[in-house]
Design a protein that fits this description.
InterPro entries: Adenyl_kin_sub, Adenylat/UMP-CMP_kin, Adenylat_kinase_CS, Adenylate_kinase_lid-dom, P-loop_NTPase. This protein is of the alpha/beta class. It contains 9 helices and 7 strands; from the N terminus they run βαβαααβαβαββααβα. The chain has a domain of 146 residues: 3-Layer(aba) Sandwich (Rossmann fold). It is globular. Bound molecules: adenosine monophosphate.
Length: 214
């Protein structure tokens, strides 16, 4: 089963993808993580994407689709969680074509719906482990030892695109470029909406399991 986690930045896509990978036989494909890997390895694509990402803007579809196509060419095409991809209608169409060529498809799209006020709170205090990619929050989900990852002792970092002025640009881009995907996947009868504003991440996970019959 292939699924898409759809939702604004800060809606908890990464956290839920992590839980699905830990508990079931899923592999996470996060285009954000792939871009950050390319940036840290200073590849040509990483250099091109870096400026856009730190400005809070989307990387062009052509580059993003090619990266996903390459990823899927070299590996598994089943049991994938698409986290942060697709983010535009063009990307959704490209993904459909790539999967059709592999005799595969998207089975369900889980929309994690959060009120904007809560998104801002979550993004402003977010801390990320650069090594294992786990996400923490200064207030809501602090690490056991201040500034240090519970799992591998790395120093936690704030993402450059989690600065308040960049957050506003990313939320705007979600509204204009990504939210049309909600209707797109509704029409395809694949969308399940979960309202997550007042739910713990454990409760959200339970709802995702229900939706996926896991
Ligand atoms: P994320 O970790 O999913 O929040 O992604 C971080 C940043 O990477 C985004 O703000 C974009 O600049 C870029 N990015 C990630 N996924 C995509 C995508 N599907 N299309 C375009 N840009 C993306």
């Amino acid at each position: 089963m292939n699924i898409i986690l759809l939702g604004a930045p800060g809606s908890g896509k990464g956290t839920q993808a992590e839980k699905l990978v830990q508990n079931f036989n899923f592999e996470q494909l996060s285009t954000g993580d792939l871009f950050r890997k390319n940036i840290s390895e200073k590849t040509q694509m990483g250099l091109e994407a870096s400026k856009l990402i730190s400005a809070g803007k989307l990387v062009p579809d052509e580059i993003t689709n090619k990266m996903v196509e390459e990823y899927l060419k070299n590996g598994n095409k089943e049991n994938i969680i698409f986290d942060g991809y697709p983010r535009t209608i063009n990307q959704a169409k490209a993904l459909k074509e790539i999967l059709v060529l592999n005799n595969s498809k998207i089975d369900k799209v889980i929309l994690l719906d959060v009120e904007e006020k809560i998104l801002l709170e979550r993004l402003v205090g977010r801390l990320i482990c650069p090594k294992c990619k786990r996400s923490y929050h200064l207030k809501n989900r602090p690490p056991k030892k201040e500034g240090i990852c519970d799992f591998d002792n790395s120093s936690l970092e704030t993402r450059p695109d989690d600065k308040p002025e960049k957050i506003a640009i990313r939320l705007q881009s979600y509204l204009s470029d990504t939210s049309p995907l909600i209707d797109y996947y509704k029409t395809e009868k694949k969308l399940v909406k979960i309202s997550v504003s007042n739910l713990t991440s454990e409760k959200v996970f339970e709802k995702i399991r229900e939706a996926l019959k896991l």
